[in-house]
Amino acid sequence: MTRCLNCGADRNADVCESCGLNSAGAELFLRKRLLNRTAIFVLGALAFVAASVRYPPVEVDGVLIFIGALFFPTLGLAIWVERRALRHAEVEALKRIYYGLVPIPWLLAALLLVNGLLDRGVPQIQQERVVGKFSMAGALPIRRVLVTSWREDHQFESILIDRNDFDFLHLGDPINVKVQDGLVGIPWIAGVSRP
Ligand SMILES: [Zn+2]
User: Fold this and answer.
1) pTM
2) In the prediction, which pLDDT does 1 show?
3) How far is the CA of 11 from the centre of ligand 1 (A)?
4) SS3 66
């Protein structure tokens, strides 16, 4: 006995009693749905990256590493489910795990957005100094400065900045970093300026 690839019901014959699809039809439906959910997941990951650039958490590297660690295994899982479906192997449990992971980037993007957008707190101005800068070209160009840290247990902070700030800042320059607590308690950087 196997389960229907489309609805997950137990199935004894080629045609599923529950949804009326035969095994080829059920496979087609499953693959279509996998593709749709994968598109939703990828868009969610992009939304998350966009939110973390717009309202960058102080721990932006940890956040980006986290999303990478979620992104690739989840896509791998989708591929695995599809391969198993092609062989008409059992996919029900894996499929549910995959569907459960799909909304996570959207939820995290929403969290960062709410944390920054609705933060009405007064920013703290941290007076630091630029000790490094680097940029990475590409589809999503990334420009960062490394500054001395205001946190006791950190030596440096890496801050995402835009092109204008990047061109104007030089090594050794004093820099004011506007730090906000965040509505949901994720400290984020509202901007940098020159004193
Ligand atoms: Zn079915």
Assistant:
1) 0.86
2) 58
3) 8
4) helix
Half-sphere exposure of 58 (CA within 13 A, CB side): 20
177 phi/psi in degrees, rounded to 5? -110, 125
pLDDT for 64 equals: 85
Ligand 1 centroid–CA 74 distance in Å is 25
Q: Which residue carries 């799909």 as its tokens?
A: 102
Averages of pLDDT over runs of 10 residues in the chain (195 residues) are: 85 90 92 95 94 91 89 95 90 94 96 96 95 85 91 92 88 96 95 90
The DSSP secondary-structure symbol of 23 reads H
| CA 90 to centroid of ligand 1, rounded, Å | 13
The residue among 136, 150, 149, 144 whose CA lies nearest residue 56 is 144
Q: How far apart are CA 92 and CA 95, in angstroms?
A: 5
Ligand 1 centroid to 153 CA: how many Å?
56
Residue carrying structure tokens 């080829």: 24
